[in-house]
Design a protein that fits this description.
- With 330 residues, the chain is of the alpha/beta class.
- The chain has 11 helices and 13 strands.
- The longest helix is centred in the C-terminal third of the chain and has 23 residues, at 222-244.
- Bound molecules: oxa(dethia)-CoA.
- Residues 29, 33, 37-38, 113, 154-155, 158, 193, 222-223, 225-226, 229, 259-260, 263, 287, 318 line the site of oxa(dethia)-CoA (UT7).
C-alpha cells in the first residue's frame, strides 16, 4: 500500500470585498446580527465578468507552484463544486483546458459543503490503488450570483462567499498520509438546504412561475441545519480518530468547513479542543461551500500552523445532508 502526501496548497478569492455594512444597504440586516450569529465580517464576491473557472485555475496554479509540479505530471483532476460555470460539463474539464493538462481523468464531485472531504478521500483511493500518482484537487464556488438579495433571502445571503482552494496530492514513500476517511449522507433532509431549480423535471428547466416563487435561489432551514451540523461534525471527527487509534489531544489542527463560527465553537466545546487546535477564517470569507476547507488549509500552512508529521482532521457537513472527515498525517 502506498502512502499519499499533500505536497502543495493554494487559494484564490475575487478582489471584490463585500462587508456586512454593504449587505445592510441591500437588505434588512446589520453588521451586529451577522457577526453575532455567524462570526462573518466580510466575504469576497465575483465582479461582473469574472468566472468560477478563473478562481479555480488561479488556486490550482498556486498549488502547482507550491508543490513544484508541472501540469504535465498531473494524471487526474478532481473538482468539488456546486456552482459550475455551465449546467454541463462541470468545471473539472474547464480546469483541464485552462491549465493545459494532458488528456487525463477529470472528475466533478457534487457533495456540496462536504465536496472537498469526499474529493480528498477519492484522490487518496485512486493513488493507493495505483490508478493515479499525482492528483490535483480543487474546491471552487461562486455562490454570490445565486443568492436572493431581498429581505426575504437575508438568512442565506449574508452567509455565503466566492472563492477557490486547491491541493496537489501525490504518492509517497514517506510518512505523510491520508490515514482514513469517513463519508456519510442522509437524503431525507435534501430539502432542508437546497437550491431546487433549475430542474430537469420541468420543461425548459426553469420558468417565470418558478422564478416568481424564488425556487431558483438556495433555501435553508437554518436551525435544523445547525443542529445536525454540530452532531455530525462531532461524529465524523470521532469516527476517524477511533479508526486511526488517535486521541483528540494528539491533533495539531482541526480544519472544519467554515459554515458558521457558532457551529465551529460548539464542536470545539463538545470535543474539548483547545482554541489553537481549531482553524477559523470565516470572518474574512464567509461560507465558501466546497472551497472553504482548501482555502483554510492553504492559509493554515502559510501561517505555520502545521509541520510535517502533525496530525490533522478535515471535517465537513452540508447540503444533502452529507458529512465526513479525513484524518491526515501532514
Ligand atoms: O454549510 C452548511 C450550511 N449552513 C449552515 O451551516 C448554517 C446553519 N444555520 C445557521 O448558521 C443559523 O441558523 C443562521 C445563522 C442561518 C440563523 O441564525 P439563528 O440564530 O438560527 O436565527 P433564526 O433563523 O432563528 O432567526 C432569528 C431571527 C428571525 O427573526 P424573528 O422571527 O425572530 O423576528 C429572522 O427573521 O433573525 C432574523 N434574521 C435576520 N435578521 C437580520 C434571519 N436572517 C437575518 C439577517 N439579518 N440576515
Amino acid at each position: 500500500m502506498r502512502n499519499v502526501a499533500i505536497i502543495g496548497t493554494g487559494f484564490h478569492v475575487p478582489e471584490r470585498v463585500v462587508t456586512n455594512d454593504d449587505l445592510a444597504k441591500m437588505m434588512d440586516t446589520s453588521d451586529d446580527w451577522i457577526r453575532e450569529r455567524s462570526g462573518i465580517r466580510e466575504r469576497h464576491w465575483i465582479a461582473p465578468g469574472q468566472t468560477g473557472r478563473e478562481l479555480a485555475a488561479a488556486a490550482a496554479r498556486m498549488a502547482l507552484d507550491d508543490a513544484g509540479v508541472e501540469p504535465d505530471n498531473i494524471d487526474m483532476v478532481i473538482c468539488a463544486t456546486v456552482s459550475s460555470d455551465c449546467a454541463f460539463p462541470g468545471n473539472g474539464v474547464l480546469l483541464q483546458q485552462d491549465l493545459g493538462l494532458g488528456l487525463i481523468a477529470a472528475l466533478d464531485v457534487r457533495t456540496q459543503c462536504t465536496g472537498f472531504v469526499y474529493s480528498v478521500a477519492t484522490a487518496s483511493a485512486f493513488i493507493k490503488s495505483g490508478q493515479a500518482d499525482t492528483v490535483l484537487v480543487v474546491g471552487t464556488e461562486v455562490q454570490s450570483t445565486a443568492l436572493d438579495l431581498s429581505d426575504e433571502g437575508r438568512d442565506m445571503a449574508v452567509l455565503f462567499g466566492d472563492g477557490a482552494g486547491a491541493v496537489v496530492i501525490q504518492a509517497t514513500d514517506g510518512e505523510s498520509d491520508v490515514l482514513n476517511s469517513a463519508l456519510h449522507s442522509q437524503g431525507e433532509y435534501c430539502d432542508a438546504l437546497w437550491c431546487e431549480m433549475p430542474s430537469c423535471n420541468i420543461t425548459g428547466r426553469i420558468d417565470a412561475e418558478v422564478m416568481a416563487q424564488k425556487r431558483h435561489h438556495p433555501h435553508m432551514n437554518g436551525r435544523l441545519v445547525f443542529k445536525h451540523a454540530v452532531r455530525r461534525f462531532s461524529e465524523a471527527i470521532n469516527e476517524v480518530l477511533t479508526a486511526g487509534g488517535v486521541a483528540k489531544e494528539d491533533l495539531t489542527l482541526v480544519i472544519p468547513h467554515q459554515a458558521n463560527l457558532r457551529i465551529t465553537e460548539a464542536v470545539a466545546k463538545r470535543f474539548e479542543l483547545a482554541p489553537e487546535q481549531v482553524f477559523s477564517n470565516i470572518h474574512k470569507y464567509g461560507n465558501t461551500t466546497a472551497a472553504s476547507i482548501p482555502i483554510a488549509l492553504a492559509e493554515a500552512v502559510r501561517e505555520g500552523r502545521l509541520k510535517r508529521g502533525d496530525l490533522m482532521v478535515l471535517v465537513a457537513f452540508g447540503s444533502g445532508f452529507t458529512w465526513g472527515a479525513n484524518l491526515i498525517r501532514w
